[in-house]
Amino acid sequence: MSVITIIGSGQMGSALTFPAIENGNEVRLVGTHIDKEIIDRLREDNYHMTLKATLYDSCKYYQLEELEEALDGTDVVIGGVSSFGVDWFGTEILPKLPDGMEVITVTKGMINEPDGTLVPYPYYWQRMLPEGKKLSLNAIGGPCIALKLANHDQTHVAFCGEDMEVLRKFKNMLTTDYYHISLSTDVTGVECSVALKNGYAMATATAIGMEELRGDDFKLFDAQAMLFGQSMKEMMRLLDVVGGEPINLIHGVGDLYVTVFNGRSRRMGILLGKGIPYAEAKEMLAGETVEAVVIAQRTAQAVRDMAKRGVLKEEDYPLLLHIDDVITRGVKIDIPWDAFAEEQ
Amino acid sequence: MSVITIIGSGQMGSALTFPAIENGNEVRLVGTHIDKEIIDRLREDNYHMTLKATLYDSCKYYQLEELEEALDGTDVVIGGVSSFGVDWFGTEILPKLPDGMEVITVTKGMINEPDGTLVPYPYYWQRMLPEGKKLSLNAIGGPCIALKLANHDQTHVAFCGEDMEVLRKFKNMLTTDYYHISLSTDVTGVECSVALKNGYAMATATAIGMEELRGDDFKLFDAQAMLFGQSMKEMMRLLDVVGGEPINLIHGVGDLYVTVFNGRSRRMGILLGKGIPYAEAKEMLAGETVEAVVIAQRTAQAVRDMAKRGVLKEEDYPLLLHIDDVITRGVKIDIPWDAFAEEQ
To answer: Any CB–CB contact under 8 A between A164 and chain B?
Structure first.
């Protein structure tokens, strides 16, 4: 039995209370400053307002102000913030954790540096730590929808970090007969693969928008498959450029699959596929987090910056760069189909 | 302008008349012995009974008995038989083609030898040729549904063969603004990748069957993504074993994507996912070609045979081998979820 403190009581952080408690751990769930209401309600009757699920009664809840109390006696920490909370998590939370703490985070995405280098969050946070501070920073990638996890549906994710022993420890604390965990020390590969799927899910879903535009039941399966395959090809190439292990592409492509069929990237892609300009589509999806769009823009910017350095060629990423043109530069959608056919 | 003779007037062979004629070629469509009615009807009003499409008026139709006439003056041949017609095509048709003829076929799949070696059809046919006979044998792989191609939907395929110049010639004859063609000399990679998707599409679709069994609108997205990712992992491994280029995995995975969402492998997978024994599921799908099942069985057998030789390990293919157990040995479905989580 370990004491696991989850910081960030959004959907994913909270869904992880299920496998964590079922493994016999003591679980403490700490809300961030934007989670106050969620924690208040959980304290009443264990009902999670956005996850729409009732958590285990044994789960302990804390507001952010009670973080110190929550951390007292904590064995490991799970970070549950979204990519918008990355800097906050790095500057406000990590310095407060006891030295040597082992941390694993659900935050997906990477930071792009001015020269196009893509930095996975664990490495980004590592650099932000105060001098002398030592933490073990690990991450969770792969196709996992919080609502499905809370529902105990079969799910497969990858835990990545530099120390396999630490990863095994986290796996032992969290694995169940429905939450299956692969382990990898290839942090860049897993995180890059997973971050890439956002832009590509939007891109693949444009074919679904084209179908809907037709207004009949005719499915553009060939076109969807073409965009899916092209997405995979570009992901494969970028993974190679950043030095990731090819096998870790499966987490990103699995995630791509699930993102094409569910969620915000899909809805945005469908609108774009119908020819609706990005600014207008954004209005139509008002209220929805545009995390995926931000990640897609960052990845595209990284590709453009790396191309300037000669690390890769822009023409190897025609789909990503076109989608970026559409969402970042207001270009009218016009999928460059023929650019996908190549001699290999 | 070239004279293109298509042998086999099933859906795919016939759908190729569209890009072929639109490129200004003379196109001759020859029915096999099972296509008699199709050819009879096409001669009446150009309507293709199974493709449910009207072909171009300039298309010329031939019954098998008129093959010699069709071949007279032919520049290149397209083979349009299904994998059930492979031996027939090799023994009855190929020997009748003029020496040096360039042939490209739509037949997907591979032959497995007793030691587990997987042989792409172009190489299989090459070995069947009478002594001294020389033909250029090439193949088409990738996600292309005949009805979608006939409808001029955006489609991306791969032409593969040993001579890039011959492939370019075929591409020039057939490429259009909706039929996009990549070229590859990695015949084994393209064909293996494409052949593998049959069993895996059934496997991935079992999660859709599990959803339907629930009887509500709840989608098992995580489980689908898990099976899709696992399929890709096993395909990636087998492609590596047979020496295929990793990039050609995109044709197989694109094809996997489209096959999960459309067609017979999907329907079979859904029934199996509901727990219906294979024998019963087969009855329920009576009348449907079980080509995909045969290909899946062959691939699984090849994996088992290669494992005996120590070329690969059976435990690296838990999903394929379980699905094979279900369809070949009457085993009750019980997806080995936990076997998919690995240390990498």
So the answer is: yes
Q: Is the ipTM of this complex over 0.90?
A: yes
B343–A222 C-beta distance less than 8 A? no
* CB nearest B224 (choices: A248, A258, A343): A258
Total Cβ atoms within 10 A of residue B138: 25
Question: CA–CA separation, A61 vs A40, rounded Å?
Answer: 9
Per-residue pLDDT of chain B (344 residues; tens, 9 = 90+): 999 999 999 999 999 999 999 999 999 999 999 999 999 999 999 999 999 999 999 999 999 999 999 999 999 999 999 888 999 999 999 999 999 999 999 998 788 899 999 999 999 999 999 999 999 999 999 999 999 999 999 999 999 999 999 999 999 999 999 999 999 999 999 998 888 888 899 999 999 999 888 876 678 889 999 999 999 999 999 999 999 999 999 999 999 998 888 778 889 999 999 999 999 999 998 866 667 788 888 889 999 999 999 999 999 999 999 999 999 999 999 999 999 999 98
Whether A154 and B337 lie within 8 Å, measured CB to CB: yes
User: Minimal Cα–Cα distance from A161 to chain B, Å?
Assistant: 11
Which chain B residues are within 8 Å of A340, Cβ to Cβ?
A: 156, 180, 182
| Radius of gyration of the CA atoms of chain A, in A | 20
pTM over 0.90: yes
- Is B165 within 8 Å of chain A by CB? no
B217 CB near a chain A CB, below 8 Å? Answer: no
* Euclidean distance between CA atoms B61 and B31, whole angstroms: 8
